[in-house]
Amino acid sequence: MNFPSQTLSSLHLITPDPGDDNEADRFLYQLEKSLINGIRLVQFRAKSLEPATYKKLAIKVMACCHQYDATLLLNADPELVYELNADGVHLDGTRLAAYQRRPLDSGKLISAACHSLEQLKKAEMLGVDFVTLSPVLHTASHLEAEPLGWDKLRQLVKETNLPVYALGGMNAQLLNCAQKNGAYGVAGISSFWGV
């Protein structure tokens, strides 16, 4: 059974890379500012960190998120979700392609990164709870990527029964537009970080 979408926040923060250990305090300060300002759905993404460093910081990120009743997804191996008792996992494209069945039980949330109809169908087959679909608009983090645009977003949303978060060039002011085009919410990095 999928996690009920009505319990999901319509604004979804994906954290920027935290940098090295010397930046951890600043990272947590910025995360807390985002939570104070109403963010309640967070994906902890830190591709540059070694697994042990990621785990150490994830414990602090989780404590911060839970202090504000925010849901935390780890962008990491799903086993770490059980080890830390996090709320769920985000499957990047590589992990989405690798799994043939849902990697966590229904008591944990799973989101997946999608860029195509094929990936949306794979996410459905795995029984994930929601997806990010990107890039909708031009984004500084992926300058080379051709944006989907609103029309393609709308078409792809119609092809899935999963809640879809528009990602790529999004901010809170675009939530209404995204929802008019079928998205459940918007996801972003810089637009929700520390503001």
Fold and architecture overview:
It is a single chain. Helix 1 (24-36) packs parallel to helix 2 (51-67). The protein starts with 10 loop residues before the first strand and ends in a 7-residue tail after the last strand. It has a single domain, classed as TIM Barrel (Alpha-Beta Barrel). By secondary structure, the chain is of the alpha/beta class. An eight-stranded parallel β-barrel has the order 1-2-3-4-5-6-7-8. The protein is globular. The model has no long low-confidence stretch (mean pLDDT 93). It has helices at 24-36, 51-67, 78-84, 93-98, 117-126, 149-158, 175-180, and strands at residues 11-14, 41-44, 71-74, 88-91, 109-114, 130-133, 164-167, 185-188.
Q: Which properties best describe this structure?
A:
alpha/beta, 8-stranded parallel β-barrel, TIM Barrel, globular, single chain, 195 residues
Topology summary:
Layout: E1 11-14, H1 24-36, E2 41-44, H2 51-67, E3 71-74, H3 78-84, E4 88-91, H4 93-98, E5 109-114, H5 117-126, E6 130-133, H6 149-158, E7 164-167, H7 175-180, E8 185-188
Parallel strand pairs: 1-2, 1-8, 2-3, 3-4, 4-5, 5-6, 6-7, 7-8
Helix pairs in contact: 1-2
Principal-axes geometry comes out as: globular
CATH superfamily label: Aldolase class I
Quaternary state of this entry equals single chain
Q: Secondary-structure element sequence?
A: EHEHEHEHEHEHEHE
pLDDT < 50 stretches: none
Per DSSP E runs of 2 or more residues, the count of β-strands stands at 8
| CATH fold assignment | TIM Barrel
Q: What is the level 1 CATH name?
A: Alpha Beta
Give the overall average pLDDT. 93
- What gap, in angstroms, lies between the N and C termini? 34 Å
Strand content: 15-25%
Helix content: 25-40%
CATH architecture: Alpha-Beta Barrel
Rg: 16 Å
Strand order of the largest sheet: 1-2-3-4-5-6-7-8
User: How does the helix and strand content classify structurally?
Assistant: alpha/beta
- For the record, the count of structural domains works out to 1
Major β-sheet annotation: 8 strands, parallel, barrel
Count of helices? 7
